[in-house]
């Protein structure tokens, strides 16, 4: 449904669009924006949806975009995998060697 609405904006469908991650063509995707007044759904809609979202987050671990997550500073990675990732980053020139965290 979302793709069909974006197509109304004149962009290509996802299967017609060039790849985002390779090649030199612009993907030419469509953007469809819709604004909905929550009051249309009733007086207490915002309270109801807020309560529902809190339950989803608290009891089901659903990430709610825009809310802060705990930032982890340490991630355990196998040494061999780390070396492969580091080599890939350096080969792709994504960051300079000194910019890689943990590389002394």
Features:
Oxidoreductase; mainly alpha; single chain; flat; 104 residues
Question: Can you put this structure into words, describing what you see?
Answer:
The protein has 104 residues and is mostly helical. It has a domain at 1-34. It has three helices and no strands. The protein has helices at 2-7, 45-60, 79-91. The N and C termini lie far apart (49 Å). The mean pLDDT is 80.
Secondary structure elements and their pairing?
Blueprint: H1 2-7, H2 45-60, H3 79-91
InterPro entries: Mal/L-sulf/L-lact_DH-like_ah, Mal/L-sulf/L-lact_DH-like_NADP, Mal/L-sulfo/L-lacto_DH-like_sf
Protein name: Oxidoreductase
Organism: Corynebacterium casei LMG S-19264
User: Mind describing the biggest β-sheet?
Assistant: none
Mean pLDDT: 80
- Class from helix and strand fractions: mainly alpha
Point out poorly predicted stretches: none
The global form is flat
Share of helical residues: 25-40%
First-last Cα distance: 49 Å
- Treating each run of at least 4 consecutive H or I residues as one helix, how many helices? 3
- Strand proportion: under 5%
Structure at a glance:
The chain is mostly helical and 104 residues long. The protein is built from three helices and no strands.
């Amino acid at each position: 449904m979302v793709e069909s609405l974006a197509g109304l904006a004149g962009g290509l469908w996802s299967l017609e669009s060039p790849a985002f991650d390779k090649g030199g063509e612009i993907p030419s995707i469509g953007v469809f924006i819709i604004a909905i007044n929550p009051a249309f759904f009733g007086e207490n809609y915002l309270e109801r949806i807020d309560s529902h979202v809190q339950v989803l987050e608290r009891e089901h671990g659903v990430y709610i975009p825009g809310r802060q997550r705990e930032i982890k500073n340490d991630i355990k990675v196998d040494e061999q995998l780390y070396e492969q990732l580091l080599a890939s980053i350096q080969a792709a020139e994504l960051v300079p060697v000194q910019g890689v965290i943990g590389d002394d």
